[in-house]
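[Automated response] Your request has been received and processed.

Submitted sequence:
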Amino acid sequence: MHLAQVYRFDDVEIDLGNFRVLKAGRILPVEPKALNLLVFLVENRGRLIEKRELIDGVWGDAYVTENVLTRAIGQLRKALEDDAKDARYIETVPTRGYRFIAELQEDGHGKGLGSALPVSHGATSVPAQGSKSHLRRYGISVLGLVAAASVVTILFLLIRLRSNPPSFQVATSTQITASTGLTFFPTFSPDATEIAYCADRGKGFELFRRQLAPGGKEVQLTSDGEQNIEPAWSPDGSLIAYYANRRGGIWLLPALGGPARRLTEFGSHPAWSRDGQWIAFQSSSMSDFGADSMGAFPPSTIWVIHPDGTGVKQITQPGKPLGGHGAPSWSPDSRHIVFVSQGPSAVWSTAVDGTGLARLTDLGYFIYDPVYAPDGNSIFYGADAASGNMEPTLGLFQVRVSPDTSAALGDPVRVMDSNGFNIKNLAFSADGKKLIYAALGMTSRLESLPLSKTSDPAGEPVELTNSVGCRNSEPSFSPDGNHIAFESCLSRPGMTAQIWMMSPDGSNLHQLTLGHDPMLTPTWYPDSRHILFASLVRPTVDLLLVDTETLQEKTVDKNAVRFSRIELSPDGAQLAVNLQTDGVVNVWIMDMASGNLRQLTFEKEMAGFPEWSPDGKFMAVELQRGADNSIGILPSGGGPIEQLTPYHGRQWLHSWSSDGDRIYYVKQVEDLSWNVWSVSRSTRVEKQLTHYSRTNAFVRYPAVSPRGNQVVYEYTETTGNIWMLQFK
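Generated structure:
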């Protein structure tokens, strides 16, 4: 228990009775957990408190990563205007923990009750021997303190319950499918006796349905090889809307099977309104089936159309809100649509006429597939980081909303942890008693493909790293070719990814950073010793560098503009970044000395993910036209973009060869497989370097060694099955 009702230091006052902190008389916007953390630090002032002790003391038995602690410390420092480098209140003890170093005031009015007491050693500690005399001095008994604390706690809980009513309670959780591959995107029939879903049974993704009664058999609905996904059952039970990945657009299929008809030429992720009069969809297609795939890149927006093909109209506009808009879901009265923005990730609602846009969650890491509960009072979604004042975790979340306006009525609450799986593709039964979803997991590794002097494969890929539940991603060779930096959470799956480093053969593996939020995207300085990376500080980012020999970190740019990709120039003087303006991603260049930004590309759909040529004179970029991508180059000082590859499928670049002729990228074609390719700038000849064929796997970020003898890339495979919750 806390032995003081008020703590004061400098111009700061911690008012425990009203559960708030003030600075210069102004109430600070500090989340409850951060305030508890500050109290814990104050009550243990003057000594080093290890990170684990802080986590145990403040968060108790809840599973919390050190990243949560780091973020809470950062929030306190920002609110208190404390500097980590020149701390006045909270001192960092590198790699170990924190120490509260401010002195509590000793003047008559400023002295809190705790200032005359011995320093406690835990949030639940009792007074040291002899401390009763201090309590008597103020005429306060231990029982009185307990009673007062109990009243405050009860009042706080009542306030929380009024603004955030109890969440749904899960009665049973049942696994519906048992595939060793990937089965996902479930949807209920109107009477909830059947579900439809998509799965790959060896010949690409097709649609299936099955009864939920024991012994229900799987019935295949499509067999056209068009990679059909995202089924949505109509409210009257007669039709299933879906996205045909190969042909593109949204299609309508009789629920019992038969010929399908095309509804739209573009878009994906269809969702029926409750009255069956409209279908909402996102304008972009799905890029991959990864467990953490965002699903909607800018400039994706939300549209609606009648099932007969009439009345098509755009509901949201690019950049409002920022990010790609996807995964729409209708309110029960068909007056509102909820959707997710990706990059940054958050849940939003809007009226069907496009007015009343409202954000329902804080900006998160990744949020998936929000859906209205049938009573219209809640929205459910999957996430791999909590919103509001909750600790990051994989799980199912609920936010209460107004049934009239769909505005949020409190902070999100966690309904259920997911045991390391990503919860996606949510769908409710019409009566609201059942919720189905896909539980997706992943295995990921970095692979190294040897190359010949002609840049052809010189052998089979070799595994360098491997982990379950966490991607090994963004490999980047040091300029001297001696090291590879990459992102991973190898040490502890489920934690936030950090930067690691290894030798080109996978040896000497060790972690470089600790406690940072993503996005990291490591990029090397010319000295092959320092790495620049980005740490997400919602809603902006911090730029930091880490010394790979001493592991010391330094802030380069704090609270930078919110960009989504960074790449240092070969001389380290400039930084190329992705930046959204009006919902469109273009490349901008930041001068590292001044911090000034200038726009390099001016595309209307997308030009992004920049990569400098080895001599720094050119920039390779990804170009977008509808659902297709192309690789282009332009002078790094600006100018026209020269297209190197045709617009066909998805093509995502990552590196140049040391001679500046070949660009390495990954490509996905009609069969949905991803592979590593290269294209020659001088001859325009493309080469396919790998030959993977699984639809539930992808490759990313091919980094070629400066020595030209290997290309290292991410290989990640997604598996998943359908589960059903029944609520009490």
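Summary generated for your ticket: The radius of gyration is 27 Å. The chain is about 10% helix and 40% strand.
If you did not submit this request, please reply to this message.
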